[in-house]
Amino acid sequence: MITPEQIRAKSLRKYTSFLQTLVRNETFDRIVITGDKSYTKSSLQEFEREIRSILSQSKDKNGYGYSLDFQKVKTKYLGTQDLPTAIYFDTEIDFLKYLNKEKEVKVFEQNIRKIIDELPELKEWIIQYPSKIIANEDKWEDLIKVCQYFLKNPIPRLYLRELPIKVHTKFIEQNQGILKELLDLIISDNVNKEEKQFEKRFNLKYSEPQVRFKILDQEISKSYFQGLNDIAIPVGQFESLNLPIKRVLVVENKTTLYTTLTLPKMTKTIAIFGSGYSINNLKNAKWLSDIELLYWGDIDAQGFEILSQFRSYFNQTRSILMDRETFDKFFEYDAGTVSYVTADSFLNEQERELYDLLKTNNWRLEQEKIPLEYVRSFFDKLE
């Protein structure tokens, strides 16, 4: 026999379809809860207790809730007994009071009327996701304002907080998840669907990450940057950089970036601070495809994973000072950070062998632990 807990659980599962009928403006139809018409327990006392429990939450007992139809059924152990064969809600009030959803549904109906009046194109989305109306029940006035603005201005080219919408300054930032769903529907022709970042997806300005680099050629420093040699610019500007460069050295750590200024003179060369996995900021700098690229990272699992990532963007990348000879010469048995990824797709045979060794043993030799004299000697030969 079905229990009161099972009746409630099944009733809650009917709630979404009930909300959908409200959006479609359909009349209420009896909601039926399926039950078990058999009874196999042998204790009459237990049977009577279960019947009382079911009746305690019924409409007959409380004036609202589910109604019960009984039928005489012959049981295996208790003979013929009256068992509930039909469980149903006859009215909307019975159903909502039982679930304690009256107030929630009242707000839901107010919101869907408001949304459909202002943005009728969202009606099918509401039918599909009525729970999202409830999850954002106190935000719909402002969500509608944002949607209406984008309908009129699908390509704003403004920063989020510049948008002339009368909502809290942080409202859009704090509600990007639901707004993404809505805007994807109502301005679909103007959405950059391949972009995940909210600002890029919806044609907004955004604060770009910066690329920091050092000019290692004094002539380039004087001619293009008035003698400055330590520079940081937005990614977009870096992507369009036009300098007489033949070589780029990418270093993983900031400390090593400072070291590059003490290296032997390197003509037509700059050093870029890769900043670990932020190396992906460089992937759209197409001009890097046509020059010599050197990558110098820590000799640990992550260092080779970042190298592999960078080489996936620019396959001519050559690793430097990340070889077995350098590792054996200066390794001090420092522990690394455990890696759970597999990223050797763009490593050559020697790099892959060292990567496997480092990953297996969780070893690390940081860039800054390689003596400067050794580094200088390497770059002397490089030029």
UniProtKB/TrEMBL annotation:
It comes from the Bacteria. Residues 4-184 form the DUF3322 domain. Pfam families: DUF3322, JetD_C. Residues 206-376 form the Wadjet protein JetD C-terminal domain. This is DUF2220 family protein.
